[in-house]
Amino acid sequence: MCPPQHFTVEYAINPWMDTTAPVDAALAVEQWDLLRTTLVDLGHTVHVLDPVAGLPDMVYAANGAFSVDGTVYGARFRYPQRADEAVAHRAFYQDPAWRFADPEHVNEGEGDFAYLPGAHGGVILAGYGFRTEPAAHAEAQEMLGRPVVSLRLVDPAFYHLDTALAALDDHNVTYYPAAFSASAQRVLAQLFPDAVLADRADAEAFGLNLVSDGRHVVLNTEAIAMAEKVRAAGYHPVHVELTELKRGGGSVKCAVAELRR
Ligand code: ARG
């Protein structure tokens, strides 16, 4: 995670960003810290990246890389405003515990990649259409040695895979079907017949932008109906208030890069 010390909305690269609406950076830090302590209280280790002035979107740490079984596929951001974030993430993984693979193609890390270790022997789901290039999906498969399933995103409001789909545990997902092309919806229905389906209101509340440890599902307070859906599916929803991060077009998942070793 990376604290939103320098968080602002000074450019708009997704439909949620309104450069005329002021951001409360102090409140953003407070809310972010509650997310961090919530994860710690659930028993997880959280490493914190140093925020860099001039990189206001760095709080969305999920976009900086994608790791599977100790191999890290680095990010290459679509927009120049975020390009330098990749450098900070790369530095974090310069540790013998990780193998780091430099990307050639545009991809925004966990924003567009999800890993389900228990589904079909270990499968990577990958989004494209707005940020990550399809060529990066093939590159990720080559670097990570797991099948990558390409899913086309069709709604600009849900520009990253993690705004429209989330892993609930090692083998199941939840998603908002209409965020995907008709063919991608068929693929998801085939691979995940027991998926928890979300609706537009859930997605607009950033209810799919969640982090799950397979038991606890951490999601923002606005996503009330979504919390009931995950509860009905047997998980424990845990709410965190993240109103400020929504102004940049993100929520819980965007703020957390998961480390898979
Ligand atoms: N303002 C950021 C962008 O548009 C938000 C990124 C949200 N992160 C995510 N994992 N969806 O790039």
Please summarize what this structure is.
This is Amidinotransferase. This protein is α/β, with parallel strands linked by helices.
Set down the secondary structure blueprint.
Layout: H1 25-41, E1 65-68, E2 71-74, H2 85-92, E3 99-101, E4 113-116, E5 123-128, H3 134-144, E6 148-152, E7 165-167, E8 173-175, H4 182-191, E9 196-197, H5 200-204, E10 211-212, E11 216-220, H6 224-232, E12 236-240, H7 243-246
Parallel strand pairs: 2-3, 5-6, 8-9, 11-12
Antiparallel strand pairs: 1-2, 4-5, 7-8, 10-11
This protein binds arginine.
Protein name: Amidinotransferase
Q: Can you tell me about this structure?
A:
By secondary structure, the protein is of the alpha/beta class. It is built from seven helices and twelve strands. The protein has helices spanning 25-41, 85-92, 134-144, 182-191, 200-204, 224-232, 243-246; strands at residues 65-68, 71-74, 99-101, 113-116, 123-128, 148-152, 165-167, 173-175, 196-197, 211-212, 216-220, 236-240. The strands form four sheets. The protein has a three-stranded mixed β-sheet, with helices on both faces. Helix 2 (85-92) links the parallel strand 2 and strand 3 (99-101). The longest helix is centred in the first third of the chain and has 17 residues, at 25-41. Bound molecules: arginine. Arginine is lined by residues 13-14, 17, 57, 60, 62-63, 82, 111, 160, 162-163, 248-250, 254. This is Amidinotransferase. It comes from Paractinoplanes durhamensis.
